## 1
Amino acid sequence: MGLQLQTQRLVLREFAYEDWPAVHAYASDPEVTRYMSWGPNDEAASQGFVKTVIAQQGKLPRTAYDLAITLKINGQLIGGCGIYRRRLQEGEMGYCLHRAYWNKGYVTEAATALLEFAFSQEGFHRIYATCDPRNLGSARVMEKSGMRREGHMKEHLYKDGQWRDSLLYAILDWEWRAPRE
Ligand SMILES: CC(C)(COP(=O)(O)OP(=O)(O)OC[C@H]1O[C@@H](n2cnc3c(N)ncnc32)[C@H](O)[C@@H]1OP(=O)(O)O)[C@@H](O)C(=O)NCCC(=O)NCCS
């Protein structure tokens, strides 16, 4: 069955090839991909994404943990999230949600489950994530997930003929386990 994480309202599960139209529904939306390094996708790019992700599922040791964000109530695929091993115990987290589901706390719920999985089950020491400084929703997700802002990287990402800044957020395993207010 592969990896599956449950939260109160979500099931984070492995992608299957049949998921590509649901992926395309958000990955082709320029509003969704505005601050991403990729997109908006054409159909071939969304199919290619799903194929690449499926090829990573069987790799040992696993370096890319891409999971579909689905609603527990009806199984609908509403986004994607993942942890990517960059070094032995360091991972990068990413996420993306269909626009119709923004601002309902879903990605914070998914990110919290991913961090718990990374630290408790996979032995990561540090997880970081970046976002465009204009992407206030993404920065807020990282803050709500307990991540600390570590820096502002100037002209970190080149997209559509422009250099873009990124904010860097991170959390360590012992910070994740520390009691929170
Ligand atoms: C960014 C994104 C992941 C957030 O997911 P989400 O499920 O809507 O996030 P949540 O509902 O858990 O939290 C969003 C928070 O940001 C806040 N927020 C959203 N837009 C905001 C804005 N324009 N200004 C200020 N705060 C904003 C919300 O109010 C909420 O905070 P609160 O709970 O304190 O009120 C989602 O909008 C998305 O997928 N965007 C497109 C892809 C993307 O940018 N991915 C991240 C790349 S780094």
## 2
Amino acid sequence: MSKPIREYRFQFGLFASQVLIQEALPEFEELRRLLFPDPPHPPLCFVCDAHTEALARRIRGNQASPCCVLPPGEEAKTWASVERILKTALDAGLGRDAFFVAVGGGVVSDLTAFAASVYMRGGRLCLIPTTLLGMADAALGGKTGIDLFGIKNLAGTFYPASLICLSLESLASLPKGEWKSGMAELIKAAILEEDGTLFARMRALKDGMARGSVFDGGGGLLEALARAVEIKGRIVEADPRETGSQRALLNLGHTFGHALEASAGLGRVSHGEAVAWGMVRAGALGRALGITPADRERAVRELILAYGYETRSPHPLMGDKKGFMRALGGDKKKKDGKAVFVVPAERGARLIALDLRDPRAQSLW
Ligand SMILES: NC(=O)c1ccc[n+]([C@@H]2O[C@H](COP(=O)([O-])OP(=O)(O)OC[C@H]3O[C@@H](n4cnc5c(N)ncnc54)[C@H](O)[C@@H]3O)[C@@H](O)[C@H]2O)c1
């Protein structure tokens, strides 16, 4: 395994998570040494999907560790997949010392973490995210979940991984659309950041990408990812179970984004596209409420536009206004009957609760 380029340690309540950012994928023996510095080495149970199986195979080498290969995509985020993971571990004779290793995007990491959290009342967990979204967001912070009754992440647990390995090499095979999803999360972290370093870096990274591949950016992507990890990690440390107001800041763009996804019809607008559009709407709302200064709103919109996202309102794929408002009001994020939004502030962002009948909300779309 290459030497980590960055290393972070976070404490999420009772759980400690170590994050390593490196160029290459970890090799089996190195991974095992990281997980268990001293023998005996409990068995590892790998989980991947059909698109990340080759990456998992490279890590496993010729080791005979069990591996559960799931179908790819959100449709696989089901009880049945959790059962398949649990059955793989059981069939391999793994006990309470089982160590689950997820190699994949947010779907594989959410599923594996969920399964690990319930296997014999709690196995151990390592996540190796292979999408930009997984690296910038899903793998860190302990939220696990499956979709049930048509509702995303209806069932889940909090179960942070003890080790998270981000390897830039694994992004080489990522399809273009998946890059766009992940970039939205990096932009979100940049808006949440108080000092503006990542915001400036995201602008520079975009210029670098316009000239060539994202990997040519002189370490720009790596630095951006590292900063995004740090920002999310510190927010979750302050509010690991989202009982306060800190962790909810990570929902920036999501209230509008989920309403867009629902009103457009699920699957018509990608999650990244919806969140990016939602962040622009959040800027407009913040400005109408006197929280987001005009130049900050413009800077947010221009950055999102520069990455090729739709910024116009109404979004061309949005359903009718009534359906959108219904979806906005029906979002999970509610407080005292009001919809909760995160809006960009002069520095960082702020949480607000708003009655959707408020004319300042009505005038925005
Ligand atoms: N737990 C959290 O805090 C959190 C945060 C954000 C999102 N999520 C969850 O993450 C999921 C979305 O994650 P995602 O965008 O990574 O989707 P995903 O896991 O479905 O991956 C997207 C696609 O890319 C493929 N893929 C993954 N890595 C690849 C690689 N290196 N090369 C080629 N193909 C690859 C996958 O097989 C899949 O087809 C959602 O279910 C969402 O709820 C969780």
## 3
Amino acid sequence: MSAIPKPIHDAAAAFDTLPGVGPRAALRYAYWLASQHKDTIKHFARSIESVANGVMHCEICGLWSSTQICSICSDSKRDIGVICVVGTSQDARVIEESGAFRGTYHVLGGLLDPIGGRLPENLTISNLVKRVFNPQKLVREVILAVDPDVSGDMTAHYISKQLHGSSVTISRLARGLQHGAQIEYADGTTISDALGNRRDLSLS
Ligand SMILES: [Zn+2]
């Protein structure tokens, strides 16, 4: 029989599901948690629970938000004529932190990966098409800030085709991001550089 008390075992099993955390670290966290003051543990648990209850996708852009319309979409100082298309909310967060972008976002919910079963209908591409082809014609530019790898290439190509016939300029983040790199781990300078040197895809 294991010497690990069940509550610690259960907490470790929960930590073990976190990305980048292995079973040993998970167990270390669980023991650390057990050694904390009860109020600290309760606060920790409530913080996690609030993610389940208090976070939703913005109805316009799909970013994680605590309100139906996120703080970026509801900010009148943001340029709604430029949409930066990203795979995940995390990618948008990195671009936000670079301070180099003042438009709005569109979160795809991943990138195309037909072999892994992620098809166009699993992403929010149709919502993006609706935003771009909106009769009010508010959008003038779409920047595809997708990872420079095979999935990113496929996604960029697919979206460009879907937006064909619209009057928007379509560009893709370019220099600075090496092939195979992930936006999530890029620094602010690299993102600013890649935004500034985006490649026009409209004619391809
Ligand atoms: Zn939004």
## 4
Amino acid sequence: MNYDVIIVGAGVAGLYAAQYLPRDKKVLIINKRETFKCNSFYAQGGVALAVDDDDIESHVKDTLDAGAGLCDEEAVRTLSESSRSTIDDLIRSGFEFDSDKDGNLLYTKEAAHSRERILHAGGDATGRHMHHFLLSKNPHPMLGDTRVVDLLIKDGECYGVTVLDHRESRNIYADNVIIASGGVGSLYEYHTNAPCISADLQGLCVLKGIELENMEMMQFHPTVYVNSENAQKLLLTEALRGEGATVVDENGKRFLFDYDERGELASRDIVSKAIYDYSKKTGLKAYIDFNNFEYHYFMQRFPNIFKNLQDLGFDVPEQRVPISPAFHYAIGGIRTDLNGRVPHVKGLYAIGEVASTKVHGANRLASNSLLEGLVFARRAAEDILKHSENKEPIEFEILDEIMSEKDDKAKKNLLRKIMWENVSIVRTKNGLNDAFNQINALLNEKIGKLLKFRLLTAREIVLAALAREESIGVHFIKKDSND
Ligand SMILES: Cc1cc2nc3c(=O)[nH]c(=O)nc-3n(C[C@H](O)[C@H](O)[C@H](O)COP(=O)(O)OP(=O)(O)OC[C@H]3O[C@@H](n4cnc5c(N)ncnc54)[C@H](O)[C@@H]3O)c2cc1C
């Protein structure tokens, strides 16, 4: 069967694109694991928007300021100018953001936003509610537990994908392919992402000669509870700091003011770096303190965080919780234009976290990513409908490739350590070179294709970090002691 559109990924971006492709189109959504296993499901704080026309300039300015000069202003304007109508469409189709008893939407503020403009749902479960809602509206078939392992590209055109379906490889053909496969969390030892978010499609793009850009721009979240066993760690949303939580050391000192006059409300890269630096310099642990919250308000406003922390044995909001930064969000990704098109490959699109539209520049403003996923998903779907044409089908051979080797798991874990130690919050040229050599050595070993995806993506991050010699935004490079 030849599809009109294949969508790789069932997070917010993939599902929202699906909603704009009519039922009479043959669309297939492919999804690596169970549908809830995606970053969208875990989004807590909310979705940012320009509240009204008067707020557009300010939302654009906040986004550009966070991006530290590396945003594409046209992309940022597209994002901001479409934000109100995108959110209104979602509300009109039945999605419920949190509102007061008179039905007024409740806007909150997060770090580096100059006003309250974040909408949330289910308190701190915005992503879960939105993902569930979009799934309930999804008009198209979905193939779960199936992993895309190749893109069928010939002479600058994309004809479909190869999937690994219960260990069997097979080709699925389509006139258009939308990549909505999310970020790179599993490359890092500590991260907040869903475990299956492991940079497959970014690695595949490297293999196919498709450009990734801004890959050095990897964002770390400052307030994560990392003392648990799993690689995926519990994120404590920025909305907590936006609404009064403080960051303190073991002695109760609010040390963030030593680094930035905005203290807890500085952008997340500044807060991450400050916590990292302060803990290293003083040997003191960092904590998030909820003392400013009244018990019932905390429980109702942040019900999931409340429950998760209580389950872990913390008597919140009374008791403070130890925190550390952890990898959170891939700003860089597959280069696209403003309609999600991947340059030089006809019929190939990328949207959501996997894409680089350059709306985030050197640093993503909090809660702009769900918005980016929604806005650019719709634009990609509309672009496909506008330029829809049936391709002459071509048969592609199914390659007999080894997906995993026996030792790949241990090598994956080694890669996570290499990335955390050398390519995370504070980087040095020596550390990056060391990472580059170790990754290359792993690439030269006998490894499966799935590990190769991770290693190739990791190498792109290292190469981009080495190429940018000055610190900017989330990319912080410290002079080596022997420089
Ligand atoms: C803990 C947490 C909290 C967050 N909070 C916020 C927030 O408050 N506000 C905000 O704006 N952003 C937030 N973010 C970021 C935001 O959630 C993500 O950037 C966004 O949801 C990404 O959506 P997506 O659709 O691009 O990807 P995802 O939701 O990650 O979906 C990716 C999909 O691709 C599939 N996939 C991956 N590889 C393959 C493959 N090889 N084959 C087939 N399918 C594949 C996965 O199975 C999944 O279905 C948060 C992120 C996390 C992790």
